[in-house]
């Protein structure tokens, strides 16, 4: 692990507290000599520590223990407090450690074309015309990652190798640097902060480097770095060979969102270009070779690997010395007790393909698409203006569409993009919205109206995701004013799952399982609902228009989706062995007591099967702080066929929530583009804030 320091000239002590912001920063300048001493200490600076710190060309790092005095300080020493260590470890949380995870998967179709088997992580994470070092140059112009290659899985095996992206100066080849990097400061790249982790299916290839990469034990046999290729080639070759070996056992690689910042030393890009000659010439060749290679000795993985190592030599993709060295490495690994994974065999069927069963309610992997608008790194400073232009253009389309119907009362006199950008930057509400996800739900297959919803909402949110039965060939574009826009994001729920909207609440669970990053919360909105995005809500709490109404809701409680489903939920919980479900039910029980929705001497079982309560739920909001609880509890409700208005009613009773129903009949042009101004610029914690 490489740690990049932000040096300061000392700190001002603000008391002996580990929560002090000053204890989060390293406290010394880096000395001229690139030499480091690292020690731990539970005492105030000792004479030995003071002596070590006096060496002119040596940097001293003192790593604190929980017993180390919190006000420990010594000039010229880099002191890593407990808080600072926790801060450093935050990046590691992006990696997956559990054996089974939910999330997004890039699923290639059975294609002999190499371009169809490539994945460009930089494009997925929102950067335009950029590729990682090792991506075959011959495919860059026509490669897009595709629109039908993603699946969302509730449960899938954790990837054996995980590459974390880095902000600022990520790994690209010398061609890209020569065209785009500043000769002094290098690159300044910011990947989309909302994009989730993504796993690559067996048969998919993408280059990755040797930095910020986690190898689980199941991938230790792929750690070897070739020695007969150039320094700028070795980790790229390792990545391709590793992927092939992992694929032989049904194991995979994934990319995780940015968890580090890279600052590179200034160096000669032309020299890099020369050192990368083999990368440019042979990346496509080695991928084609590996993709088409099959083991002739179908005995065990070890024999297959040995055969592959020799075939790489025969095809001039590395030297014979690497074949011998890797065999020695594998022998050493085996002598330490490493056990090879099993071979999957030629008849292997990927268990994570999207289900094509349109009547199954227990789908594990489903079709989906998630894209973010591609941004040119050279134009980051223009992003707010570009968004404002998008808002104006979208609304202009809607005005033209209305005018076609003879309705002509909407003004087309808009502010400039700069004026609109400045005004929206002042709005606390709109700033909160752009860090939230809007989920648009349809009770029946999506056909018409997708483009309308995109134009109304897409520029204002981190992502707009359509949920319901999605068949791309059935989505109708009638005219230029309401046609679908790119990117278009969706999650497919088959007709049996969504069932006329009875289980629309499951959409929030599915979006949560995508594992988007840095999201404030999730709005669920029915397709026939108008969301006044300028209206004020408390983004830290669950928001529901009606709240938990004490209505018996006879029509639903008397059906199989009511009392019968509730009784099945009780049986499910009583027979449960999953600790996540156990914790969610405990939170449900405690929440009902805390917020006064459970009678004395009653339990959560009594409340769930009470046959009482329903809440019309065409619109509600779940903050990220409650999203894990929501996803676990509501999946139990979904699996037991609990109806939307009953399920949401029970959930809302168990959490701190806000009930608010504002005016619907306000014209967007009045609110968003001038005139009436009923959204505030104050923050949620301002004492005089109001909700209009």
Automatic annotation (TrEMBL):
Pfam annotation, one family: STELLO
PANTHER family assigned to the protein according to its UniProt record, in alphabetical order: EXOSTOSIN DOMAIN-CONTAINING PROTEIN-RELATED, GLYCOSYLTRANSFERASE STELLO1-RELATED
Protein name (record): Uncharacterized protein
């Amino acid at each position: 692990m490489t740690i990049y320091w932000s040096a300061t000239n000392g700190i001002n002590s603000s008391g002996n507290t580990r929560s002090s912001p000053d204890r989060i920063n390293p406290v010394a300048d880096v000395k001229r000599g690139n030499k480091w001493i690292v020690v731990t200490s539970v005492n105030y600076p000792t004479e030995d520590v003071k002596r070590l710190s006096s060496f002119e060309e040596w940097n001293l790092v003192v790593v604190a223990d929980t017993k180390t005095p919190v006000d420990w300080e010594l000039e010229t020493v880099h002191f890593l407090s407990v808080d600072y260590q926790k801060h450093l470890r935050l990046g590691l949380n992006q990696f997956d450690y559990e054996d089974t995870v939910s999330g997004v998967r890039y699923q290639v179709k059975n294609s002999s074309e190499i371009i169809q088997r490539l994945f460009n992580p930089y494009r997925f994470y929102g950067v335009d015309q950029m590729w990682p070092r090792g991506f075959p140059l011959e495919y860059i112009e026509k490669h897009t990652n595709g629109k039908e290659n993603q699946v969302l899985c509730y449960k899938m095996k954790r990837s054996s190798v995980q590459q974390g992206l880095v902000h600022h100066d990520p790994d690209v080849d010398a061609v890209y640097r020569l065209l785009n990097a500043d000769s002094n400061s290098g690159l300044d790249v910011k990947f989309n902060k909302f994009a989730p982790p993504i796993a690559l299916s067996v048969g998919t290839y993408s280059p990755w480097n040797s930095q910020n990469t986690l190898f689980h034990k199941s991938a230790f046999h792929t750690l070897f770095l070739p020695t007969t290729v150039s320094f700028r080639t070795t980790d790229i070759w390792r990545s391709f060979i590793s992927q092939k070996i992992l694929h032989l056992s049904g194991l995979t690689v994934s990319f995780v969102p940015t968890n580090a910042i890279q600052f590179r030393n200034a160096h000669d890009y032309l020299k890099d270009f020369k050192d990368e000659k083999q990368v440019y010439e042979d990346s496509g060749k080695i991928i084609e070779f590996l993709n088409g290679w099959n083991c002739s000795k179908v005995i065990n993985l070890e024999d297959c690997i040995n055969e592959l190592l020799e075939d790489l030599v025969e095809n001039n993709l590395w030297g014979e010395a690497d074949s011998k060295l890797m065999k020695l490495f594998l022998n050493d690994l085996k002598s330490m007790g490493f056990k090879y994974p099993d071979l999957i065999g030629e008849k292997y069927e990927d268990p994570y393909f999207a289900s094509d069963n349109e009547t199954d309610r227990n789908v594990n992997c489903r079709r989906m698409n998630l894209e973010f608008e591609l941004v040119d790194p050279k134009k980051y400073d223009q992003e707010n203006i570009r968004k404002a232009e998008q808002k104006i253009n979208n609304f202009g389309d809607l005005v033209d569409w209305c005018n076609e119907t003879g309705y002509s009362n909407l003004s087309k006199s808009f502010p400039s993009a700069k004026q609109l950008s400045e005004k929206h930057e002042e709005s606390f509400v709109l700033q909160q919205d752009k860090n939230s996800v809007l989920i648009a739900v349809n009770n029946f297959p999506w056909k018409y109206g997708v483009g309308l919803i995109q134009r109304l909402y897409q520029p204002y949110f981190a992502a707009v995701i359509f949920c319901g039965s999605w068949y791309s060939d059935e989505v109708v574009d009638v005219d230029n004013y309401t046609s679908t826009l790119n990117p278009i994001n969706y999650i497919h729920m088959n007709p049996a799952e969504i069932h006329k909207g009875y289980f629309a609440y499951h959409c929030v669970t599915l979006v949560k399982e995508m594992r988007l990053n840095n999201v404030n919360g999730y709005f669920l909105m029915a397709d026939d609902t108008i969301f006044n995005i300028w209206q004020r809500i408390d983004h830290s709490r669950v928001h529901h228009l009606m709240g938990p109404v004490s209505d018996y809701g006879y029509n639903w409680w008397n059906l199989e989706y009511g009392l019968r489903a509730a009784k099945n939920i009780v049986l499910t919980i009583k027979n449960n062995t999953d600790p996540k479900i156990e914790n969610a039910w405990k939170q449900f029980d405690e929440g009902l007591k805390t917020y006064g929705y459970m009678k004395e001497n009653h339990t959560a079982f009594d409340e769930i099967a009470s046959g009482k309560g329903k809440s019309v739920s065409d619109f509600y909001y779940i903050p990220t702080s409650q999203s894990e609880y929501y996803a676990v509890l509501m999946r139990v409700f979904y699996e037991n066929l609990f109806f939307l208005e009953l399920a949401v009613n029970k959930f809302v009773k168990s959490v701190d929530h806000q009930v608010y129903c504002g005016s619907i009949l306000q014209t967007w042009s009045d609110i968003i583009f001038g005139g009436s101004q009923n959204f505030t610029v104050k923050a949620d914690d301002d004492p005089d804030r109001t909700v209009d």
